[in-house]
Amino acid sequence: MEFLIYALLSVKNNSGKLKPLLAGIKGIFGESLFAVHFDTVAAIVGEIKKVDLTTDRTRAIEYAGVIESLTHQFTLLPMRYGSMMESTEAIVNMFERNHNEILQNLEKVEDKFEFGLKVFCDSEKIKAEVRAKSEASVKQSSNPELEIKHSVYLDYVNQKLKEHRLEELLMSYVDSVIAEIKLTLAQLNTFDKYRKMGTEKNIIDAVFLLEKDKKDEVLTMIEGLKDKYPGLNFILTGPWPPYSFVDITLI
Amino acid sequence: MSENKILFNTGSLDELSEEIGKITPPEESRLKLTPANADSGLAKLVLTLVELIRKLVEKQAMRRVDGGSLTEAEIERLGETLMKLEMKMEELKKHFNLTDRDLNINLGPLGELM
Amino acid sequence: MHDNVIDRSKDLTILELLDRVLNKGVILTGDIVISVADVDLIYLGVKLMLSSVETMEQLKSGQAIIKK
């Protein structure tokens, strides 16, 4: 039997609440959950058979559900689905080796939740606009095209150059939207992360770490943003446990 | 988990769920090697990395060309090499019967560079 | 029409959730799992630093700063 770790919690404030909370939650295979303690932190684990664990959509959703049940009462670091260790001793050793980093991350996410903002672009429309600007810039540029000799290789480079410039312009458009988002949310003083051009249409995939009660403020700000960008689709989700802000690999 | 986490959205939800579905391929970070697909499975891994590097090299080359610091002869040789690299890649893909979609294994943070 | 919107919202919530719990959160090991015949064997931690030649030259001469 192995131990599936759901989350790493901070128990410094309300350790008395942990046991009753765990008593009311079951793990993904119906197993009971318990805590492995180390200093002011605890790993929430369930004992399961490793061979039973597959990347099953339903199980993954239930796993996330366990984390969700814990997150409103305790500051925690959510584990990625499938995090297992062979024994409780191994878990304690893991805590020893990674204590500082775990504490730092818990401090970072204390009382905060993650909100996600995805921005989608009706890409043909935006591309047409950007392409028009690109043609204009090609005419103005000091290296317009390499005209002197026409060889198949220079033609190839010219073609690639056109595509490259189009991409650069698209990228700077995305950068300008991100700058606008940052400006809009500046007063919330959040941690933020952005991923650009994840797919052709998903031009921005952003996450923010905020106090939960800022939810309405964020909503209002994003609503304001949508009016500035009629060609873009915005989707705001949350509050989530801080999955995207715990970028640590435990050694 | 019945709580709805969608706080705000503009646009059609159909389109959005299709797009988010593309970004979220839980199975694709696994490379499954089986007896049946052993050589093409490994080829997929190798060609994904090679294609990643080829695209980065191409992008960097275009930045240099755009920067204006290269002579025409240099640009022409760059063009010849890049073109041959692209053609070679197409050959390899055909040989292993792999499409561009197949080569998009999620490499974690590197994946976004494609 | 209403039901469709509710279903879609649920779909989106689930997709967002799966993305987080499968691709994010604290990890015990590296990035890619290579499995052979359904048996997970190798974690491939892909940590590379790629930069342009110019940036590398600048780094060597102490001019450039690595942005995190």
Which quaternary structure do these chains form?
heterotrimer
Task: Please give the alpha-carbon distance between the first and last residues of chain A.
Answer: 22 Å
> What is the number of strand segments of chain A?
9
* Shape verdict of chain B: flat
Q: Please tell me the overall pLDDT of chain B.
A: 77
Q: Topology, pairings included?
A:
The complex is a heterotrimer of chains A (251), B (114) and C (68).
Chain A: E1 2-10, H1 18-23, E2 33-38, E3 41-48, H2 57-71, E4 76-78, E5 84-85, H3 88-109, E6 112-121, H4 123-140, H5 152-185, E7 191-196, E8 202-211, H6 215-228, E9 232-240
Helix pairs in contact in A: 4-5, 5-6
Chain B: E1 6-9, H1 13-23, E2 30-33, H2 38-67, H3 72-95
Helix pairs in contact in B: 2-3
Chain C: H1 2-23, E1 32-36, E2 39-44, H2 53-60
Antiparallel strand pairs in C: 1-2
Give an account of the 3D structure.
The complex is a heterotrimer of chains A (251), B (114) and C (68). By secondary structure, chain A is α+β, with helices and mostly antiparallel strands. In chain A, 43% of the residues lie in helices and 25% in strands. Chain A has helices at residues 18-23, 57-71, 88-109, 123-140, 152-185, 215-228; strands at 2-10, 33-38, 41-48, 76-78, 84-85, 112-121, 191-196, 202-211, 232-240. In chain A, a hairpin with a 2-residue loop joins strand 2 (33-38) and strand 3 (41-48). In chain A, helix 4 (123-140) packs across helix 5 and helix 5 (152-185) packs across helix 6. Chain B has a domain at 38-113. The radius of gyration of chain B is 19 Å and the shape is flat. The relative contact order of chain B is 0.13. The model of chain C has no long low-confidence stretch (mean pLDDT 66). The radius of gyration of chain C is 21 Å and the shape is elongated. Chain C has 2 helices and 2 strands. With 68 residues, chain C is α+β, with helices and mostly antiparallel strands. At the A-B interface, helix 2, strand 6, helix 5, helix 6 and strand 9 of A face strand 1, helix 1, helix 2 and helix 3 of B. Strand 9 of chain A pairs antiparallel with strand 1 of chain B, so a sheet runs across the interface.
